[in-house]
Amino acid sequence: MPAGEPGFRMRPLLVRLHRWLGLGAAAFLFLAGLTGAVIAWDHELDALLNPSFFRGATPGTPLPALELAKRLEAGEPHAVVTFMPLSVGPGQTWIARVAPRIDPQTGQPFTLDFNQVALDPVTGAEQGRRMWGKPSLARQNLIPFLYQLHYTLFLPTKMGIDFGVWTMGVVGIVWLLDGFIAIVLAFPSLKSWRKSLAFRVKRGGYALTFDLHRSGGVWLWGLLMVIAVTSISMNLGTQVVRPVVSVFSTLAPDPFRSVAPGPALTPAEDAAARERIVAAAASVGRREGITAPPGGFFAVPTAGVYGVGYYAAGDDHGDAGLGNPWLVMNARTGAVLGRQIPGHGSAGDIFIQAQFPLHSGRIAGLPGRIAISFTGLVVAMLSVTGVLIWLKKARARRKTAKGGKAASTVRTRERAAN
């Protein structure tokens, strides 16, 4: 590009922006890339590491989900089931999420040292319990720990601000901006486009490091930008993404956030409401045009809100497409308060539905997850090579500055001698 053109004059500014935006996000993206490469396979790895937690010990016909929930809560009266599968696949355990009940004496939640329990679905016997997301490298906690680290960095929530969510959301915004700067810098002219796609493997050293950073980013640029956009959605969907999308397309209310909470349910009301909702779930789903069977149930008894997910046993992860349908219901009346049905709604609604499936790669099934896992490793590599390039150039600048200072000193002495 000729020196007089505006793009050429802007290049030094873009280089500085790329340098400082990249350095500012490098550590976060390195962690996110490595953990993302692992958690693309979180369920498989978790089951591999903890077979007794995920594999049922007794062959036979599983007990009904509501019966298993009753047995769990009878054994743990301070716990209430907040999520449970309504059916399980052959050889699988029945894994429920629990939360502490409210202590009527203090008005505060009871203390629990677990939030996830696995039962043998045939006998109801407990096979394991854990605190999902606990910062621990123990085998039972490792994969949930990495999942939580990926999204929150275990940063605290203070003054109502979730610093983990906001940090990773802002990093996503920085990454998206830096990605567009990087693609402009990667192609300084039409004549040199081949260099931006090449890897000088035989040269090795700094040349290969530079090519891994530049050309590696170019080859996967589209996928990297998809992950950057979806990472913003995963963390700042309500605060940033939905307001932006709503400018271009009408959005239905978020069924998981916009439902006004009602009065809290007593334990007896909760148990009765669960039975009503589960019994009616199949017919309610058909009325909403959902063909899949009821597969999962979540409850927020303190808000009087329940939800049902529709999928076959073992398909709770939404391994292809836009995920599974969900209905949010009034616990007392069974009325549908909100719905998320993949592929239904405005263009903006479908865009929002696609964010997690795109981010996890599950939208394309197994090939998508392989691509996301590989891209996570590339993100970590780009972070490392970017820092190495900066260190080399910083040393060169310091050396040049010292050489210039030394030469200036010599000239000064020569003038003084003359």
Automatic annotation (TrEMBL):
<keyword id="KW-0812">Transmembrane</keyword>
<feature type="transmembrane region" description="Helical">
    <location>
        <begin position="20"/>
        <end position="41"/>
    </location>
</feature>
<keyword id="KW-1133">Transmembrane helix</keyword>
<dbReference type="InterPro" id="IPR005625">
    <property type="entry name" value="PepSY-ass_TM"/>
</dbReference>
<protein>
    <submittedName>
        <fullName>Uncharacterized iron-regulated membrane protein</fullName>
    </submittedName>
</protein>
<feature type="transmembrane region" description="Helical">
    <location>
        <begin position="218"/>
        <end position="236"/>
    </location>
</feature>
<feature type="transmembrane region" description="Helical">
    <location>
        <begin position="370"/>
        <end position="391"/>
    </location>
</feature>
<feature type="transmembrane region" description="Helical">
    <location>
        <begin position="163"/>
        <end position="187"/>
    </location>
</feature>
<dbReference type="Pfam" id="PF03929">
    <property type="entry name" value="PepSY_TM"/>
</dbReference>
<keyword id="KW-0472">Membrane</keyword>
